[in-house]
Amino acid sequence: MTRKTLIPIFGDQLSPDISSLDQQKPDDCIILMAELDEETGYVRHHKAKIAYILSAMRHHARSLQDRGWSVEYVELDDPDNSGSFTGEIARAIERHDIGAIRVTEPGEWRVMAMIENWEEKFGTPVSICPDSRFLATHQDFDDWAEGKKQLRMEFFYREMRRKTRLLLDDKGKPEGGKWNYDSDNRKPAKGRERIPQPMRFLADDVTGEVLDLVGRRFSHHPGSLEHFHFAVTHEEAMRQKRQFLDEALPRFGDYQDAMLAGEPFLWHSILSPYINSGLLDPLDLCREVEEKYREGKVPLNAAEGFIRQIIGWREYIRGIYWREGPDYVERNFLNADRPLPDFYYTGETDMLCLSEAIGQTLDFAYAHHIQRLMITGNFALIAGIDPQAVHRWYLEVYADAYEWVELPNTLGMSLFADGGIIASKPYASSGNYINKMSDYCQHCRYDVKQRTGEDACPFNALYWDFLDRNQNKLQDNNRLAMPYRIWDKMDPDARNQIRSQAKSFLDAL
Ligand code: FAD
Ligand code: DLZ
Ligand code: SF4
After folding, report:
1. Domain limits for position 360
2. Of 376, 448, 501, which is best to mutate to test ligand 3, by the most ligand atoms within 8 angstroms of its C-beta?
3. How do residues 32-68 score in pLDDT, each as one tens digit?
4. Residues 362 and 243 reside in one and the same domain
5. Which atom of ligand 1 is found nearest the CA of 270?
6. 144 lies in some domain
7. Ligand 2 midpoint to CA 10 (Å)
8. 285 & 424 share domain
9. Does the Cβ of 46 fall within 6 Å of ligand 2?
């Protein structure tokens, strides 16, 4: 009898055609899937995030079995569960005659380090397959980055457009004559009519059991299960995708940066958990978006804007994660060291923009990009919160959060803690930007027009104080020349009032 190949499949590898299964015959392999303390506990994940991943894993295991694969599935409550990937491989090797281990590369350095030990530990050859769900391999990204002074997303994105031929005309030129319609993605939302609401999927028996399990074992984790709404199978994720393409995509472009009180989703896709864990294929999705444009059903700024997020930002962020290495997480360019305020875990603050973004995060394990960047991220940046604490929070609370995608977005794009590898300037703003892009300020107890005084919007003094505190590190940044000129010209008394306003706010945090 031939020895079997053991194929571990992790919780974010739920794609039917994951590369570790490529060219393999079901009779020769054993797939191993495991619910693990190590993975559910390396940060305090939002309850709904754990429930989503475990339920999607259980459904995926069944669908692999239906397709003829032998799947060994270890549940969290199994008394013999060792709690770790390595422990479960060891147990599987005891149960079966295993001649080789084959695995698709993982999504983070932590797990990669673990896998690299397996060959020696188990005396079994281990092959690590590239993750074919991404367009650019690590080598492709390094080749592109080599010798460049600045790694700007825009130029990488154009390469990906050429590679996929998405939204190119017959001559290989960008559709409509421009590569990027970002300037057409910034309308504030006026009316609330016609905002599509995401589909809510009813819990089947499998999800019901998982919800019980998570409620019992993770009651000390943030977030609630009350609004659990996720698709947990490929079919359900496809239905959610179709709804997005028909109902939200046409306005996605215009309102990509808009925010409205009481409206967590607006015209966003809410597809990131499914794309990141494998229920949806990113390139297929982009092709369908392009088709909608070619059929005349969605405008170019929507199709291009969406495709840019996936083949541009998402791929670029992954490239940075692997290129910068496991020490990236320790960067702290601005030496920020303030603890994360408690309200990040309760939503209880008078700052309405923050209470809205955090409240919906705790309810739905979701906030859209501009909320993550310009509300929770911006506040953490200008208040000088420790990047490690902020990183942990984002990794915990969003259903789509895996380190490869969360870390560069948080530490690099949002907190400028990498000193400008991702962002050409810090995404810092006063209340003015929030007021322009949302209706939050209209319902807030603070006055967005005031810089000092009891009713002044805290973002205003914090913004100037941030520039002041970090002047020696930031003043040479050309893109900040204008605000520094304004600050330097400001009356010294006004500057002192701003400093003391910011200080008393920060001291009270
Ligand atoms: P849509 O607005 O509909 O966008 C479409 C898709 O584009 C998303 O589903 C996502 O796959 C992709 N995308 C858009 N922007 C980015 C980006 N900057 N990086 C990578 N992919 C992107 N995204 C995650 O998937 N996981 C995270 O842990 C994560 N953490 C973030 C932390 C911070 C501080 C910031 C500023 C952004 C983070 N993002 C993260 C990116 C982005 O906010 C989410 O992808 C998006 O909000 C998901 O919602 P959606 O599916 O409705 O996106
Ligand atoms: C995020 C997560 C959670 C919460 N639980 C599990 C789990 O129990 N089993 C599993 O295989 N994967 C889980 N995941 C996703 C993994 O953390 C992710 O797949 C690995 O880190 C690989 O990068
Ligand atoms: Fe946020 Fe300031 Fe607007 Fe209130 S006034 S919602 S704190 S930006």
Report:
1. 343-508
2. 448
3. 999 999 999 999 999 999 999 999 999 999 999 999 9
4. no
5. 52
6. yes
7. 6
8. no
9. no
